[in-house]
């Protein structure tokens, strides 16, 4: 039976091509419709109103909208702080593990994967409760002031701490990929034998070799922090993503306009990541 | 020598370990402790309550939504990835993969507003096709919206796996008298299976933990566990609901943990074929 069908199909192989191409065309067309129509209609929604006709006023309104500059600058500030902190924590740890304690490597890998298992919303529940109980518990000690300070609404450090945990898996993976491409041990030992100090080795030998991995880790962190909603909104802060939801109630067009701009922003950030990576490959 | 080496290793890794213990470990412990505490005493009451009534409905709703999105997204994503890879057009390939990279990362609040502008009650397309009011704010509405980031995610997972299928394998199979069906049944699909299963699990996880999109879109119309946790945390002022939120969170972590326990070994198996 199998042999029979086999013979039939072999002889028909040449005729098989056109219908397959047709099938692919349909798939691509449907996919294009599904992905492009919401993009197009969202743009139309922002520029067209039945009363005023076509105008770009929703985009112009953006800069003057109440809270736009404040929430965006808060998000950018949080992103920069997160990038600096996560790199300062992971890079020395990963180098130390590679150079001196290969046994710790599995521990590192597990730790840096764990945040992927925990949905952000459950993480918020844990942080929120820990903060509340911590404030009660530590009220008589000087640590209490620290706990209050990290929750300052002007610059909530607690969000930076949470974001570092959330981006840890992605940062770990980019840095790990970067470290794989270089012979860390030989480079560092050569530099040390030539009399370089540890800070010098880190800044002048390791970091330049990791430039593209560091850049992509930073861009990914930036994209994640700018779009983060769950943690910030449930802890009661108003960075960019939370502000969009707040404003959507009164200004529908504006919120869709911001959504289009944030898609463009993600696109630019990822473009930057891929250019950095392809430049590295071309070397 | 070895001692100083390993102590240096600990020194470099110490800040990260301390940070992790404080920022991840403490909340995790508080969460577990809170989930097993009711009225100040150790108890299983929260966990039992979190698996009953409206909470159980929400958990089932989340699992069902994630499963439907994962399976549909995996099938459509694989077909799309295959259509792109098989076309051998560099331009098409680059365009689709770049777009997938952007859209796979495009969840959250903006996604909800795109679809509200398109298929929402005053949306542009819903008016044209005469969609009944409220259709987007349903289970299947959410499926349609979640596929917007799930399909691209699947394309990103499957494109390298499909590239790993060597043309020689197909030729060898054909020379041995295999049909296209035989080829896919005995060569193609077994090679792709780990990647596909891994993709399904990844899609499940990302839909399961999604909160921002659902919150901005449906509020509490569709029962989902993330929405229940949020309302137990913020909406209800009654004391004791926080512990329910913690119990629900623990349930979610268990489900997500199971999912990752399937995913990580699969990912390792997939990467074997990519090189």
Automatic annotation (TrEMBL), chain A:
Annotated transmembrane regions: 21-47, 67-94, 106-131, 143-172, 213-236, 256-277
**In which compartments does the protein localize?**
Cell inner membrane; Cell membrane
Which residues are in the ABC transmembrane type-1 domain? Answer: 72-273
CDD domains (UniProt xref): TM_PBP2
Reply yes or no: does the keyword Hydrolase apply. Answer: no
Q: Name one GO cellular component term.
A: plasma membrane
**What Pfam families does the entry give?**
BPD_transp_1
Q: Which UniProt keywords apply?
A: Cell inner membrane, Cell membrane, Membrane, Transmembrane, Transmembrane helix, Transport
Q: Which Gene3D superfamilies match?
A: MetI-like (1.10.3720.10)
SUPFAM superfamilies named in the record? MetI-like
GO biological process, any: transmembrane transport
PROSITE patterns xrefs: ABC_TM1
Source organism, top-level taxon: Bacteria
**InterPro entries, per this entry?**
MetI-like (IPR000515), MetI-like_sf (IPR035906)
Q: How does it sit in the membrane?
A: Multi-pass membrane protein
Question: What family classification does the UniProt entry report for this protein?
Answer: Belongs to the binding-protein-dependent transport system permease family.
PANTHER family of this UniProt entry?
A: INNER MEMBRANE ABC TRANSPORTER PERMEASE PROTEIN YDCV
Q: What is this protein called?
A: Thiamin ABC transporter, transmembrane component
Q: Which organism is it from?
A: Nonomuraea gerenzanensis
UniProtKB/TrEMBL annotation, chain B:
Subcellular location per the Swiss-Prot or TrEMBL entry: Cell membrane
- Identification of the protein by name: Binding-protein-dependent transport systems inner membrane component
Q: Which residues cross the membrane?
A: 12-36, 56-83, 95-117, 137-162, 183-204, 244-266
Per UniProt, what is the membrane topology? Multi-pass membrane protein
Q: Which family is this protein grouped under?
A: Belongs to the binding-protein-dependent transport system permease family. CysTW subfamily.
**By its UniProt entry, which InterPro entries does this protein fall under?**
MetI-like, MetI-like_sf
Task: Please verify whether the record's keywords include ATP-binding.
Answer: no
């Amino acid at each position: 039976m199998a042999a029979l069908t086999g013979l039939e199909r072999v002889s028909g192989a040449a005729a098989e091509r056109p219908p397959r191409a047709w099938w692919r065309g349909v798939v691509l067309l449907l996919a294009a419709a599904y992905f492009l129509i919401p993009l197009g209609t969202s743009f139309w929604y922002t520029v067209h109103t039945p009363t005023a006709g076509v105008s770009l006023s929703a985009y112009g309104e953006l800069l003057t909208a109440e809270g736009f500059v404040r929430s965006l600058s808060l998000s950018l500030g949080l992103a920069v702080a997160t990038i600096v902190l996560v790199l300062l924590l992971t890079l020395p740890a990963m180098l130390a593990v590679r150079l001196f304690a290969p046994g710790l490597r599995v521990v590192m890998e597990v730790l840096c994967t764990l945040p992927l298992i925990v949905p952000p919303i459950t993480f918020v529940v844990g942080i929120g409760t820990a903060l509340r109980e911590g404030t009660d518990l530590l009220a008589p000690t000087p640590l209490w002031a620290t706990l209050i300070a990290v929750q300052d609404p002007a610059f909530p450090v607690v969000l930076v701490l949470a974001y570092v945990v959330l981006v840890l898996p992605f940062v770990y993976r980019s840095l790990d990929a970067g470290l794989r491409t270089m012979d860390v041990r030989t480079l560092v030992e050569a530099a040390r034998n030539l009399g370089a100090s540890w800070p010098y080795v880190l800044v002048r030998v390791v970091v330049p070799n990791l430039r593209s991995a560091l850049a992509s880790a930073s861009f990914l962190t930036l994209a994640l922090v700018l779009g983060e909603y769950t943690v910030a909104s449930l802890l009661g802060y108003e960075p960019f993503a939370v502000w969009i939801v707040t404003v959507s109630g009164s200004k529908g067009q504006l919120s869709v306009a911001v959504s289009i701009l944030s898609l463009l922003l993600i696109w630019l950030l990822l473009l930057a990541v891929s250019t950095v990576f392809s430049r590295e490959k071309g070397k | 020598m070895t001692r100083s080496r390993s102590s240096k290793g600990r020194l470099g890794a110490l800040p990260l370990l301390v940070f992790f213990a404080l920022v991840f470990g403490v909340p995790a412990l508080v969460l577990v402790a809170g989930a097993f505490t009711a009225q100040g005493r150790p108890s299983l009451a929260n966990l039992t309550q979190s698996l009953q009534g409206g909470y159980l409905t929400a958990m089932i709703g989340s699992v069902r939504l994630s499963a439907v999105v994962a399976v549909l997204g995996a099938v459509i994503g694989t077909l799309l990835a295959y259509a792109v890879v098989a076309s051998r057009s560099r331009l098409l390939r680059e365009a689709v993969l770049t777009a997938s990279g952007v859209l796979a990362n495009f969840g959250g609040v903006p996604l909800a507003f795109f679809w509200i502008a398109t298929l929402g009650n005053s949306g542009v397309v819903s008016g044209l096709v005469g969609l009944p009011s409220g259709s987007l704010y349903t289970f299947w509405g959410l499926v349609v919206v979640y596929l917007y980031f799930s399909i691209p995610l699947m394309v990103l997972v499957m494109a390298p796996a499909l590239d790993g299928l060597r043309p020689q394998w197909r030729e060898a199979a054909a020379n041995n008298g295999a049909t296209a069906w035989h080829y896919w049944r005995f060569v193609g699909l077994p090679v792709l299976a780990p990647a596909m299963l891994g993709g399904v699990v990844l899609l499940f996880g990302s839909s399961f933990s999604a909160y921002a999109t659902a919150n901005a879109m449906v509020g509490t119309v569709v029962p989902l566990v993330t929405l229940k946790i949020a309302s137990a945390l913020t909406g209800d002022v009654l004391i004791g609901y926080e512990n329910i939120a913690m119990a629900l969170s623990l349930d979610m972590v268990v489900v997500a943990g199971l999912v990752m326990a399937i995913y990580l070994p699969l990912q390792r198996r997939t990467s074997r074929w990519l090189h």
